[in-house]
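Let us work through a complete example step by step.
Step 1: write down the sequence.
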Amino acid sequence: MFSLPQLEAFVAVAEELHFGAAAERLNMTQPPLSRQIQMLEKKLNTSLFSRTSRKVELTAAGATLLPRARQILDMCIKTDLDVRRVSSGQAGVITVGYTAIAGQSALPVMLRRAAEGMPGVSFVLRELVSTDQMDGLLKGTVDIGLLRPIVGRPGVVSRPLMKDRMVVALPEGSSLLGTTGVPAGQPLPLGSLDRRPLLMYSTQEARYFHDLVLRLFASAGAHANITQYASQVPALLAFVQAGLGVALVPASAMAFAPPGVEFYEIDGRHGMRELNRVELDLAWNEETSNPAVLKLLQLIEPVWQESMPG
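Step 2: predict the structure and record it as tokens.
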């Protein structure tokens, strides 16, 4: 098989049609250039140039080789650049897992930073509940996870990325409001939800929210009368929209709530404000070999430092 130096020598001579000029272009002397051409002609078992004392011309075989040789050299240059960009994290593919709420909040922020700092990287986006993201991080099917704080797994690193709070979602015009005495727009005591139909998070796919809601109800001395379960916030909001009950959802969900749903802040008295904290983590496999992931983590680090001080 011919070598790249042989092709480079051939293209230089073919374009210059002068061995001396070609040697100068390649920053070499003429004898080694001539040897490269001779070795290439021997390998191909044909003459590539017609040489006389006054001029050099391509043979039919040389004219056939020239566009292909250029293509091969261009491909080698492009491959070299692509490999270097991938190894530096400036190119490649990152698979991101995210929850439905993260898709409306943290994910756009992350993608904007990536577009500015590493525009050559492509993203594969997968909406997954937190437990499935954790499994994907371990299996290598997910590179970056935007998930809720759940029980950690060996080999997975996580950092707090964003914080939020829970609010009460009710069907618009709910009769509940008439029994609480709470004016519209004012915080709602969770005790007023005692034994009301509660739309709840799944114990498996959304354990983080499930346990948080129970803690909030217990702190308010209210009984959680669970009537429906769902794994994602949009499904719970659909239940609320249908008038099937009330739900506690992250405040960031208000940005994409369906019509027919209204929200109330949770009354923060009696320590409820300290308990009503929702966090979103950024997670990755500590043994990742994807340079683009490491580059992205560098870009995202200021976000978690700003949003989660101390």
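Step 3: interpret the result. The chain has a mean pLDDT of 87.
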